[in-house]
Amino acid sequence: MAAFDSEALHKELQKNQLSKFLLLGDEALSRKEAFDILRQFAKEHSYLEKLTFTIDRYFKWDQCASSLSAQGLFSQKRIIEIVIPSGKINAESGESFYEILQNFSQDDLLIVHLPETDRETKQQKWFKELEKKSCMIRLDEIKPGELTSWLKKRALLLSINLDEESIQLVSQFVHGNMLAADQELNKLALLFPNQSISYDKVSQSISNVSRYDTFELTEYVLNGDQIKTLSTLNCLKEEGQNPISITSSLSWVLKPMLEIKELDFRGQSLENYLTKSRIFGDKLTYVKKALSFFSVKHLRAAIQKLSEIDKISKGVSPGDAWLETGRLCLGLAKIASRSRKI
C-alpha cells in the first residue's frame, strides 16, 4: 500500500463535505499529519468542541454514550476522536459502539483510529458500519522501494532541491522511518532554504547529528548499555527532539520482536521476517541478539508503555512524555544488561 498522502487528503476534504473518518495504521508521521489536517478542517468548519475517548478494557461505554448524547447550551458542533490502541474490542463493547455509531449526531465530526485490524475485527458490526459510512485513510509505513520517490516529493514541498545521490544518502540514513526522514528534510530546509543542496552539505548535516540519533539510542537500549542510553537521551532532549521520534524508533523494532517471540520464528524464517519488517544490516544483528534478552511479557509491557507515551505526547493523557520515555528506555536497557550477564 502507498504511504499516506497529505496533499491527497487536503484535496478530498475540499471536494467533499465529509464528517466521518476511519484512520487505519500506526506510522507516526502519517498519524500526526492526518490528525492535524482533520483537526484543522474541523476548526475551519466550526466544530468548536472536542471530545476524545481512548478505548481500553476498562472503558465505560455508557458514559461515552451519555457524553455524546448531551448537547451544550448553544449546541456547538463537535469533533469526536475515538482511539482504539489495541485495534480490538470485545463483543459486548462492540455492540455498544455499534449503537453509538447508529445514533451518532450528523452535526458532529467523527475520527476513529485503529493501529491495525485482523480478520475477526473486520467481521464485526461496528467495523462494517464504520467502513460503510466513513472515509478510510491508511496510515501505513512506507515500503522500501517507495521511500526515494516520497523523499523527492517531500523535498519539493519544502522548496529544496536534492540530487539523486543526496536522496539516496538520506534514505540510507533514516532506514525507512518517515518521521526521521521528515525531520531531516525540515532541518535541511532551515539550513539551506529555497535552493539546491549539494551532496557534501547533506552529508555534513547528517554527520552533525549522527552521535545522538534515535536509531543509535535504540541500539544502546537493546544492547543493555545504560550509560550510553542515559547520555543519548539527555542529548536528544537538549537538542529539542520530540519523544515521538524515540518511541517510533523503539516501536519499529519492538513490535516485530514481540511477534517473533509469540510465533516462535526460528532460523531462516526469523531472518526473513525481520527483513520484511525493514530491519537490515547492523540493526538485524543487534535485534536478533536482543531477542534472547526480553520475554514476551517484557515486550508486551514495553509496547503498552509506548502507547501510553504516545497519548501523553498528543495531549490525550496527562503526564510527562520525556520522563516516561526515559524510564522506559532505561528500564529496557537494565533488563538487557542483566540478561547479558547471565
TrEMBL record:
Top-rank lineage group of the source organism: Bacteria
Q: Where does the record place the DNA polymerase III delta subunit-like C-terminal domain?
A: 213-312
- DNA polymerase III delta N-terminal domain span: 22-138
- One cellular component term from this protein's GO annotations in UniProt: DNA polymerase III complex
* EC number(s) given by UniProt: 2.7.7.7
- What is one Gene Ontology biological process annotated in the Swiss-Prot or TrEMBL record? DNA-templated DNA replication
A GO molecular function held by the record: DNA-directed DNA polymerase activity
Q: Does the keyword Transferase apply?
A: yes
Catalyses:
DNA(n) + a 2'-deoxyribonucleoside 5'-triphosphate = DNA(n+1) + diphosphate
Question: Is Electron transport a UniProt keyword of this protein?
Answer: no
Task: List the Pfam families hit by this protein, alphabetically.
Answer: DNA_pol3_delta (PF06144), DNA_pol3_delta_C (PF21694)
> Any idea which UniProt keywords this protein has?
DNA replication, DNA-directed DNA polymerase, Nucleotidyltransferase, Transferase
Task: Give the family from UniProt.
Answer: Belongs to the DNA polymerase HolA subunit family.
Instruction: Write down the NCBIfam families for this protein, in alphabetical order.
Output: holA (TIGR01128)
Q: Indicate what this protein is called per its UniProt record.
A: DNA polymerase III subunit delta
Organism from which the protein derives: Candidatus Methylopumilus planktonicus
